[in-house]
Amino acid sequence: MKILSCYSIKGGVGKTALAVNLAFALGEAGHRTLLLDLDPQGAASFYFRVDGADKFRMRDKQSLAEGLRRNIRESDYPGLDVVPSHLGYRHFDILLDGMSKRRSQLRRVLEEFKADYDVILIDCPPNITLLSENVFRASDAILVPVIPTVLSRRTLEQLAGFFKDQDLPAKLLRPFFSMVQKRSKMHREIMEELPAEQAGFLKTAIPFSADVEKMGLHRMPLLAYARACEAAKAYRALCQEILSESGL
Ligand SMILES: Nc1ncnc2c1ncn2[C@@H]1O[C@H](COP(=O)(O)OP(=O)(O)O)[C@@H](O)[C@H]1O
Ligand SMILES: [Mg+2]
To answer: Could you tell me the residue ranges of all domains in the chain?
Structure first.
C-alpha cells in the first residue's frame, strides 16, 4: 500500500482538484483507492457527493482507526472509497499532541488499512501543523501543486526549508505546476527556472482551465464529465507519471 498526499502550505493552489481527479484515475486504473479528506472544509467530500463523517471519538490510535473505518463510504466510481471530512479534525493537533510518538501516529493508524487498499490518497488542509507533520511522515510521496508565481515559489522554498530543518527526506516532495497559463511570461519563466532549483518536480503540468472550475457545479471529478479536455488529459498523464515512479 502506498500513501500519497496532496499538500501545500498555501490554499487555493489545486490540492483538492488533484486529490479528486487522481483518486478517480487511480480507481479507474484498477487500484483499490481510499481518499481521505482531512480538510475540515470538506471540498473533496463535496465533489464526491458524500455527507460529512459521523461523529466519532478520537481518543487514541485505536479509536481513530475505528472511527475512520466506520466512516468509509463507497463513491459513485469503481475502485474508489472516500472517508469524508469531519469538523472534529480541527482537534487533530490536540489529540496527536497528547500521544506518544506524536509525529508518526497517522502512519500507524493508516497501516491498519493495508489489506484493503493499494493507495491511500490524503487531501490536506493548507497549513503546517502537527497533523501536517504526521502526513509528511506517513506519506510515500507528497504531491505539491505550485502555481508558477512568486508567492507559490516562496511557499515551496519554505516547505523545502522545513523538511531540511526537521531532517525529513527531501525526496518525498514532488512538486508540479498547477493552473498554468502559457500566455503568462512570468509563468513561463518560473517554469523554466524553478525545477533547476528545487529537485523532484514532476514533468506533467496542469493547465488553467474553466473546465476544472466547473467541478463545483457538476459535483464530479473533471475526468468523469469532460474526459477529453486538455486538463483531464493532463491529470491522467500526471497519474501515469506518479504510478510509474511509485512502483504501483
Ligand atoms: N487547473 C485549474 N484551472 C482552473 N481552476 C482551477 C484549477 N485547479 C483548481 N482550480 C480552481 O481553483 C480553486 C481552488 O482549487 P482547489 O483544488 O480547491 O485548491 P486547494 O485545495 O489547494 O485549496 C477551485 O475553485 C478550483 O475549482
Ligand atoms: Mg482543498
So the answer is: 2-147+210-246
Q: Is the distance from the beta carbon of residue 96 to the nearest atom of ligand 1 less than 6 Å?
A: no
Residue that the C-alpha cell 464530479 belongs to: 220
Measured from the alpha carbon of residue 125, the closest ligand is 2
Quick one: which atom of ligand 1 is closest to the CA of 14? 17
Residue whose Cα lies nearest atom 26 of ligand 1: it is 213
Confidence band (pLDDT; 50, 70, 90) for 178? Answer: very high
pLDDT in tens, 106-160: 999 999 999 999 999 999 999 999 999 999 999 999 999 999 999 999 999 999 9
CATH number of 2-147+210-246: 3.40.50.300
Please indicate whether residue 155, judged by its CB atom, sits closer than 6 Å to ligand 1.
Answer: no
Q: Name 79's Cβ contacts closer than 8 Å, sequence gap at least 6.
A: 26, 27, 28, 30, 31, 32, 33
